[in-house]
Amino acid sequence: MGWLRCRGIAFKLSLLVLSGVTLVITLILGFNYHLSRRLMTEKIEENAFNLARATANRLNTLLKAAEKIPAGVAQTINELRPNRQELNNLLKNRLAGNPELFGIAVAFAPETGAPGTNLNSCYYINRSDRIEKSPITYDYRTHDWYQIPQVLGRAVWSEPYYGKSGHAIMTTYSVPFFRHENGQRKFAGTVSVDLSLNWLRNVVSSLKIGKTGYAFLITRNGTFVTHPNFNLIMNETIFSIAEAGKDPGIREIGRRMIAGEKGFTAFTSLVNRHRYWMVYTPLPANGWSLGVLFPQNELMAGIHSLTKIMFILGLGGFFLIMLVILLTAGQITKPLRALARSADQIATGNLETDITIPGNRDEVGRLALSFAGMQQSLKEYIKNLTETTAAKERIESELNIAHEIQMGILPKIFPPFPSRTEFDLFATITPAREVGGDLYDFFMIDDQHLCFTVGDVSGKGVPAALFMAITQTLVKTRISLSSAATLGQVNNDLAHDNPSLMFVTLFLGILNIVTGELEYCNAGHNPPYRTTPGHPSRVQPLASTEGMALGVTEDFNFSSRRLKLNPGETLFIFSDGVTEAMNNEGELFSEERLENTLAGTGGKEVGKITELVAGELEAFTAGAPQTDDITMLVIRYLGGGKKST
Amino acid sequence: MFTDHSPLEKIFCCCLLAMMLVSGPVKATASPLQKVTFIPQWVPQAQFAGYYVALETGIYRKYGLEVTIIDGGPHRSSADYLKAKKADFASFWLTTGLELCDRGIPVVNLAQIVQRGALMLVAKKQSGIVKPEDLAGRKVGLWGPPFDVQPKLFFKQYGLTVKPVRQSYSINLFLRDGVAAASAMWYNEYHSIINAGIDPDELTTFFFSDHGLNYPEDGIYVRRETWRQKPKLCRAFVNASLQGWRRAFAEPKLALDITMRNLKKARVISNRVHQEWMLNRMHDIILPADSRKKMGRLNKEDFQRVAAGLLKQKIIQKAPPFQDFYQQAAGE
To answer: Cβ–Cβ of B173/A144 closer than 8 Å?
Structure first.
């Protein structure tokens, strides 16, 4: 069925409708044929029975008429005991009065014959011009016409036989007569009449049923008495025909016929192979059976030609419907096809394609309208999209610039003070979004003191970056040798006019690079780590100065702490982006992991330390998106005037 | 071809051509054919197919015989024809042959064609007859002598008393239930009954040959003087006839064509399927059951059995010696 899917709607529609039409026409034709045939068959059966019954009645009447004559003679013999002369006259008279009879005979049983002769009979036959006496010269006692009525004790029609002339087929009706001796009935002889079957054959062969229909008559033995095929007459029985044709069906029909049944049956001739309807009915007088055959093809010719005409009409109708469907389907699908072409064009990106809107407002028209509307919406959408994209690109480029500016604020050249041998410093920032809120800075306050800061502004993006820039500038402006005082001033500046309620956590350290003394103040920031080299290195957080994030409240008193760094010790200052980095399971990197990492950084270069921590972070997060800025600043104190290699 | 010749030359050529054409067949009749007549014991039918085939396919001529087959029939007894010298050869039953000898008519059996008797009794199962005992007290159609020998011995064998009814040549008395059982030849009347619409399974059959009464039937007979004077002629006739039978069995279609032709010529009422049945049954009863035995031989045991039966029934007073009665003419 795959091929059907590729075909057009017009084709599919035509195929489906025409299949339906063909089915309907076929059903109508078949039903009509079947019904007509049944009606016709019923009619034929009725007519056939009537015809067969009428013919059988006619034959039967003739036989019955002939039966009366010998019956009358037998009665006369029984009652009147005529002498020879009287008997001869009686027979001659009967024969003269019934010209349809061929002959009449009285045959006496031997013991009742005249003395001297054992066999006694008299026989007269009807010549065309006279009645002639014809003595029976053979021993008739073993002849059917005499013996069967004798044995059966009743009148019997004989099987047909060829008459003396050899041409006429005859049948004989014999009536036995009896005499009574000592109260016992004894067979005394028979009275017989011979009847030529010519008249009977004439009646049967006068039945004309179409061109090929015919009738036939069979005896009680199944022997053909009349049949259009003369070779069958007398020679064949219906059973020998069945045997020769190996047709047990015909034998069965024959058995029903000789059993005196009547019936109507389909029948295929063994001679011409024509199909017939056959009706058979018995002749009650002698038990013979008349078969009448009605040729099916002739009788059905009307129905066949009617069916043929209906078939031709159906075929014409079929083609007419096919034509109409093809035209209509073509008409209906024409705008659809145009629409399909336009859609193909649109699919390739050509939104300027013209869509033809058909004149009428059927489904196709509405579809075309919708399609045109869709095309318009699509065009507008794409226009909007183009504009939005342009705007977004502009903002993005501005954000990039802001990022560059922010990065520009942060010192980025390492080592920052190549001439200073007292310490090594390295810092890095990885913003979570283009513009981050973390900050770091370092600068020399004077020849001996290095100031360094790491902070984290609340919020992200441009506002955070601006707040950060302000904070950084304020630190630089307010810097003194007291970290607590510096932060106190910066805090007041930030908190003073802070409508957006932003704040920043900040760690500020001031290192005396000559003595290694560190003064620091922590405004709510993560405590940095101090690493003392060893195996493993000792890592410990700087003690808290209990400061609060900057910009929250004015006039907060910050305090600072002091400690002394020994040469080789390192400070690791960071933002919460490091310890709160999250992996896909929602687990934090944590201070513990950071401490462990730092423990392994003993003598490493400061740049390498940030690299190592960044590597650990990357390994931990395993591709989970970065949610916060990551800022790290590392300072290693090397001691007054000496620099490590 | 005559364009360049004179009229006289043309006539000469024509005469020459005519002489050449005529001289051909003259040579074939080197030795003259011996004219003989043969009469079968019944009308032309497949019972005698072998003789008609031998005649019509030129087998008799090949044996130097010009045979005329006289139609037998109910009013033309083959035994009478042989006795009256109206025929040289005749076919009749072994019982008839023995009877003729007994009456002092010197006939010789040259060949026993039918080896197994086909005479039987047929009854309708519907009439309650399924075994021999069921025939007791019933009307049974019997033909006249010698066809009644076996039935009478059969009844005696089973201790039955039946009411015999003289049976005609037709089977109608039986079909009309005038008799409970009828005599029949397996190859003839039995099939006629089937073809009158009675199915084989509706019939009970008693084959006398199944009851120790196998009387071989058709044989070829001559007068003793013929045998004495012309033994070669007798042998030729018998061997040609046997060859005719062999041909008939080998080519049943040909045999049936020939049979039907002769049957129609004699105005015998019959049909081809009946003759086909008859030919097939002749095949069954002519070919010896023992394939080592040859066709057309009279067995001494068969002869003695038949003779004993006839003596018992007092149909003959004295049986002729076997070697006198039977002169083997079949074979070389």
So the answer is: yes
In our burial notation (b when 16+ CB lie closer than 10 A, e otherwise), range A160-197 reads bbebeeeeebbbbbbbbbbeeeeeeeebbbbbbbbbbb
The helix (run of H) or strand (run of E) holding residue B102 is helix B94-102
pLDDT averaged over every residue in chain B: 89
| pLDDT value of position A606 | 86
In whole angstroms, what is the distance from residue B126 CA to residue A590 CA? 118
Tell me, rounded to whole angstroms, the distance of Cα B270 from its chain centroid: 17
Tokens of A294: 């009605």
Which residues, in sequence order, are bridge partners of residue B65?
Answer: B34
Q: What is the mean pLDDT of chain A?
A: 86
Q: Which residues in chain B are closer than 8 Å to A148, comparing Cβ atoms?
A: 172-173, 176, 178
Give the gap in angstroms from C-alpha A26 to the nearest C-alpha of chain B.
45
Identify whether the C-beta of residue A406 lies closer than 8 Å to the C-beta of residue A435: yes
Gap between the Cα atoms of B320 and B258, Å rounded: 37
Q: Does the beta carbon of A144 lie under 8 angstroms from any beta carbon of chain B?
A: yes
CB A303, CB A315: distance < 8 Å: no
A524: left (phi over 0), alpha (psi -120 to 50) or beta: left
| Whole-angstrom distance, CA of residue A472 vs CA of residue A457 | 11
Predicted pLDDT at A208: 80
* Residue A272 dihedral angles phi and psi, to the nearest 5°: -110, 5
Instruction: Tell how far CA A574 is from the center of its chain.
Output: 69
Q: Is the pLDDT of residue A118 over 80?
A: no
User: What is the C-alpha separation between B151 and B157, in angstroms, rounded?
Assistant: 10
Q: Residue A607, CB half-sphere, CA atoms under 13 Å: how many?
A: 5
Strand partners, A595: none
Tokens of A28: 């109508």
Rounded distance, CA B109 to CA A296, Å?
A: 60
| pLDDT at residue A332 tops 80 | no
Nearest to A469 by CA among A410, A552, A396, A551: A410
Peptide bond between residue A415 and the one before it cis (omega within 30 degrees of 0): yes
Among A109, A90, A104, CA closest to A189: A109
Provide CB contacts within 8 A for A510, sequence distance 6+: A445, A449, A450, A451, A481, A483, A518, A519, A520
B220: amino acid identity, one letter: I
CA distance A184 to A198: 41
Provide the token pair at A477. 């402006």
A457 near A469, Cβ under 8 Å? Answer: no
Q: How far is CA B135 from the centre of its chain?
A: 30
Per the CB < 8 A criterion, the answer to whether B173 and B167 are in contact is: yes
Pairing status of strand B139-142 against strand B163-166: parallel
Measure CA of the first residue to CA of the last residue in chain B; give whole Å.
Answer: 56
- Tell me which residue has tokens 């360094």: A452
Token pair belonging to B94: 């072994």
Q: Kind and range of the H or E element at A225? A: strand A224-226
d(CA A447, CA A435): 33
Q: Which residue has the tokens 């960071």?
A: A574
pTM, rounded to two decimals: 0.66
In angstroms and rounded to an integer, the radius of gyration of the C-alpha atoms of chain A is 68
Query: How far apart are alpha carbons A355 and B33 in whole angstroms?
Result: 114
Judged against a pLDDT cut of 60, whether residue B218 lies above it is answered with yes
- B 111-170 residues inside an 8 A Cβ radius of A: 139, 165-170
Nearest to B178 among A142, A148, A159 (CB): A148
Is there a contact between A217 and A160 (Cβ–Cβ < 8 Å)? no
Select from A230, A231, A235, A241 the residue whose CB has the most chain B CBs within 10 Å, as the one to mutate to test that interface. Answer: A235
Whole-angstrom distance, CA of residue A283 vs CA of residue A292: 13
Q: What is the DSSP letter of A586?
A: S
Structural contact between residues A174 and A190, judged by C-beta atoms closer than 8 angstroms: yes
